[in-house]
Amino acid sequence: MAELQSTLFQLAGGLRFTVGIFFLTLLFSIPLGLIVARGRMSKNKILAGVVRIYISVMRGTPLMLQLLLVYFGPYYVFGVKLADLDVGPFKYRFVATIIGFSLNYAAYFAEIFRGGIQSMPVGQYEAAQILGFSRMQTFFRIILPQVIKRVLPSVTNEVITLVKDTSLAQVLAVTEMFTMAKNLASTQVSVMPFIAAGAFYYIMNGVIEIVMTRAEKSMSYYS
Amino acid sequence: MGVLEMKDICKSFDSLKVLKGIDLEVKKGEVVAIIGPSGGGKSTLLRCATTLEHIDSGSIVIAGETLVKTSSSGLTQYTDKKTLQDIRGKFGLVFQNFNLFPHFSVRRNITESLVHVHKKSRDEADAICDALLEKFDLTSKADAYPCNLSGGQQQRVSIARALAVNPEILFFDEPTSALDPELTSGVLKVIRELAKEKMTMVIVTHEMSFARDVADKIVFMDGGVIVEQGADVISNPHNERTREFLSKF
Predict the structure, then answer these.
(1) ipTM of model
(2) Given an 8 Å threshold on Cβ–Cβ distance, is B117 in contact with A131?
(3) What does the domain layout of chain A look like in residue ranges?
(4) So what CATH class is A2-218?
(5) Is B150 helix (H, G, I), strand (E, B) or coil?
(6) Mean pLDDT throughout B79-100?
(7) What is the pLDDT of residue A103?
(8) Where do the structural domains in chain B lie, given as residue ranges?
(9) How far apart are CA B197 and CA B128, in angstroms?
(10) What mean pLDDT is predicted for residues B139-163?
């Protein structure tokens, strides 16, 4: 019993990093995804082409590999000491995790947003133009709110995947929950820590499902 | 001087010539109906007048402001952004499929541009909105969303939205084509009332009897040209092509 208690306590310690990676990734990747989506739809063929390659590479290679590249890249390519890259209290291994996750998830979000934006009927743009709305007003007042409603189910999918993907941070030795569970399992010679960690992930995603369902409901007043 | 003056308008989509030198003048208080077969250029003409399409050559003057002109050297030039914005405040357009903003209530559909484009206060905008809703018998629908309205109600809301900025001219692009006959009559009634109030209007329509009743001038378009125009084109067509078209109704 005491062992279970200590297991849960240590996993909860790792949970800080798991939750941290989760929220910081969403914070950066969603706005970045919107910008990438706009770039992908740009009339400038060079910009659109570059963005297209970016999305293709991000989606076409393992996130684990991308994390390792972001982490070790500065040292192997530029000879920078990794300790010099710490940001305030955050070790570079954590910063690199956030960068890697954000770049990767931005690519997925970008494609979801692009699909949503391109599914908007052209009449909405025309009505806005006739009424005198600027391009910025049209996007933020007319188009984006409707796009959010349309993409919410796909975004929920990505967000749930992100919760589970946080476990990949173990490759950079970030002591998030999965790393803790693995260490505990090997010292205790028991699968209990894995089961407990699984329960934590499941509960997190349960909360996300409830929140996203509510968000969808709050936008169901129109169709 | 007309509220709308279009001269020698030419417009092609790739190699397809859709408008081949159209001249159209609409005077203040006049109601002009544009009729003709599909693909004849009616909607394109309307879209050019309302800045949704750019013309290849010709000139358009709306409410005394030059939207676009072709110089003697053949260069077609649109006005600057600021004037364009000015001009857009002087006309309204009612679409065939309404194009209301589905995420806004009826009230916000009507007031949004008043507040955020024309910088009126919320109270002013609400007052304008309430007056229009009462006029169109929609007062009880102020807080409803477009998806909860019938097609006829949606189209009346979209007419109210177009009228909110007090435009000098109102364009209609087949305003009843998406409606069943029962709903059509309600929308046509609203347009008839506007005609009585001497609202300047250009209406692309397939409703021949309505066009004959309400329009001061009827324009028959086919093949990218105006075949015939006048007050009695429908009751007394002179051109063979016009007669052939009208005989199908």
Answers:
(1) 0.92
(2) yes
(3) 2-218
(4) mainly alpha
(5) coil
(6) 92
(7) 97
(8) 102-158
(9) 17
(10) 93
